[in-house]
Amino acid sequence: MTEKIRNRAPFRKTHPINVIIAILAACRDVRLWGVDLKGGMELGPWQACFERIATTPEEADELFRDAVAELNSRAASMAATGKRTWEPAPDNPALVIITDEHAELPEESHECADSVARRGRAVAVNVIAATQRPTQVLQLLFHFGCLSATRSVIEGERVP
Q: How far lies 103's CA from each of 69, 88, 132, 140, 155, in Å?
C-alpha cells in the first residue's frame, strides 16, 4: 500500500489524494494519520476521518516517531506469535500515514519516515506520500511499493 504520488503543474496531486482518503476512510480496518505542513489546508477538510493530523514540523516529527513505535510494537507482537504478516481487522487495523508535500518534512522526520516506508508493509503501517519535488526524496522512492505520477517530466523535456 505504500505509494508515492508526484505531479507537475497544472496537474495536481490533490484529486488522487482525496480519492484515496475517501476510500480508506470508509474502511473499518484502517486508521488514518496525516501530515500537512501547509497548516492543515489540504487534509483539514478530511479532519473527521483522521485520528491525527500533524500541521507543524514538530508535530510531524512526533507523528513519525510514534509510527516507528507502533511498527516496532506490532513487529514484536508478530514475532512472539510466529506471524509474518499483519492481518488488518476492525480490532487490529492497518495504519496509513498520508503526507502532503513529503519533501517538506523536517530533517528530523526523514529517518523515521524512511524507517516506516522500509519496514512497515509487513505490519500494515504504510505511507502514502504526495510531493511535487520527488528528486528531493529519491532515497525514499525505492521503498514505495507503488508510484503514481499525475504528470511526469523527464529531465530536459519541454512541458507544453
A: 22, 29, 8, 10, 19
In this prediction, residues 142-157 reach a mean pLDDT of 53
Would you list the DSSP string of 142-154? TT-SEEEESS---
Domains of the chain: 3-149 (3.40.50.300)
Let me know: does 123 contact 80? Beta carbons within 8 Å: no
Q: How far apart are CA 138 and CA 77, in angstroms?
A: 32
Q: Grid coordinates representing 61? A: 516529527
Backbone region of residue 3 per phi and psi (left: phi > 0; alpha: psi in -120 to 50; beta: other values): beta
- Pick from 136, 133, 139, 137: which is nearest to 153 by CA? 133
| Cα separation, 131 vs 136, whole angstroms | 9
Say yes or no to pLDDT of 30 above 90. yes
